[in-house]
Amino acid sequence: MKLYAQHGSQAGSGERNKVLQGLARGLIQGAILSPKDYDARRIGETLSEIKEQSPTAERLFDPQYYACMVAHEPDGRLGKLLGEDYQAYFTPRRRSYLESEPKLKTEIQNCLQFQSQLDVTAIISPNIVIRRRFNSIEGLISRNFIRHAKEAWDKEGGRRPLFVTLAMDAEAIQEKEELEEFVQELTVMESRPDGFYLLVNNPTSEIAPELIDHRTLSGWMFINQALHVNGFRVINGYSDILTPFLCAAGGEAGATGWFNSQKVFSMDRFAPSSGGGRRPVLRYLSTKLLNSIRFDELERLRMRFPEVLSGLPTDDFYSEERASEPDGQIEEVLQTWEAISSLGVPIGKGGLAECLKRIFDAEELYAQINLAPGLRLSGRSNNAHLEALDTGIRKFAELAEIKL
Asked: Which SS3 state, helix, strand or coil, does residue 191 take?
């Protein structure tokens, strides 16, 4: 299992740079950069910094082409995407424009030409988000983006691996029959890319990454498994703590960042702002609870239930001398990356059986905590996610006809 930084705003610079520190500590194996947050000059500098820090690290660029469908909205948050730096491939588009295959092919070519000039280790081709159902106009357009990507990259003379974007609503992958039919079409393509960059669109990025509908998780795992057994590599964007579970199904890598907008993929990130939010409370990702809890909750728990600690080097950032509060966001994300990566080792060896065991152990620990007086956890920190994880894995096993 590989874990990448989902690179975004406020990445910092110099010694405080989150991505470079994550690479230096061996907590992540690469990064996926976002043009919304940085101009082309900064993208180039960041790619160079990553390469210098870790020559073997994966350096990827998500063109975020899918945002062109909402770029017409007044007061939309498109950031640098609408600037001169990215006009070679990015401009507001209507669905009707992309129903023309010749125009769609040109869009692909423009995007790949732009990326061919970047010092990336692999290319991510563009696509739109499939809304609600695979059997839709968006589904057809998405198929065409996927179908023509390899041909366009060959025309460009590309030698680097090509990953095609496959972005879909969480609601869409809950439809079992349409999902199976769509994936079947992907596996029999004549012009095959090296792999897929999977994105699952949620209504909002404000939800906790571990709080996922079991039908969505089972579908997401099924796509990973089906593509993997057919020889494709799969990178899961914005997968956060779900990364080990998705990789147990066949995925190669996942990604997560330091804000919820880099942990959960949602098109609302590009929508007009609804107002400012409060600075989030720093959290601690417990591999034993399979959940992220507030630092002050960790402080209350650790004396009576020391097993909530993951037992990893970055636990030192949450010292008792500082009442379990880390120094800042950089320490929080480093701890998150290490926790997710550490989960990938046993799950990678034990597969789905190990996934279910980890969930069972987390349920047992939560049961003990819930019986203890004075240790009530906040809504996001409780065990609500475990049933969905367990059911999602079992539903995936049924879909993939895997015997547990």
From this structure: coil
